[in-house]
Amino acid sequence: MSTLNILCAICSEYFKQNDTIYSTRCGHVFHKRCLFRWLRRSLTCPQCRKNCLKHNCHQLYINFVETVPNENGTEIEFPKCYDWLYIEPDMDMTDIESFALKFGQDEEGNVIYAARGRFNGDLIPGYYVPQKKSVIVPWGFKSHTTTDDIELLDISNDNAEYKWVAATNGDIPENAFATGHTIMGDVLYTARAKHENMILYGKLHQRYNSAYVPFKDLEICTSTYEILVRKPKKNTTTDVQL
């Protein structure tokens, strides 16, 4: 089965197997491209007109395979996982702390969280600073601050442990997970490294065997780093063990 007998209420097309599908808080479903285009001009659900913000919309992972009865009659438990939530300007610290993955502090002492942002066509892992309402990402030998299309890593429904694993020269440890990509399709990972007695957070670009972290106005390159990994477990926490 390659399509569902369900229409996107915006474009009136049936959902297909390779579509990215999102649900609003009120339960209506749309293509991601359709919904986010709509939300650029209206902060309401396209279907019922209730208030709707991007960070309250979640991606749906739909099984297009025909279902079969469970042999032992037990209820099937769907796997828990992380998600990426778009942040809104009016989101406060209480909202962020309820779902986001806390990294630590930046060089100014501000609390920071796992995030990613777009710059020059790349979707780049970095960190979000609530006090600045910005995500900081490394790109092109410089540190960049962006306020557009910021996504925070949501682990509120995840049953996994997040930790840092040391690696060098482009190596990717077990349980590492992709958190971004370049415009050319290269996968990027969330990384951290030490510089001037500080822990800095940025990206690993395996093509160049190096991690890149923002520091002041610069992008620092290093072949010695740690990668954020996700290991399933029974209990989860919202803070990375630093």
How many β strands by DSSP? 19
Largest sheet: 7 strands, antiparallel
> Structural class of the secondary structure composition?
mainly beta
Helix content: under 10%
First-last Cα distance: 45 Å
**Which percent range describes the beta-strand content?**
35-45%
Order of helices and strands: EEEEHEEHEEEEEEEEEEEEE
CA gyration radius, whole angstroms: 19 Å
C-alpha geometry: globular
Number of helices: 2
Number of domains: 2
Uncertain segments are: none
Mean pLDDT score, rounded?
87
Pfam family, one: zf-RING_2
Organism: Lucilia cuprina (Green bottle fly)
Protein name: RING-type domain-containing protein
Keywords: Metal-binding, Zinc, Zinc-finger
List the helices and strands and how they pair.
Blueprint: E1 3-7, E2 14-16, E3 21-23, E4 29-31, H1 32-39, E5 58-60, E6 83-86, H2 93-97, E7 102-105, E8 111-119, E9 122-129, E10 134-139, E11 142-146, E12 151-154, E13 160-168, E14 178-181, E15 187-195, E16 198-205, E17 210-215, E18 218-222, E19 224-232
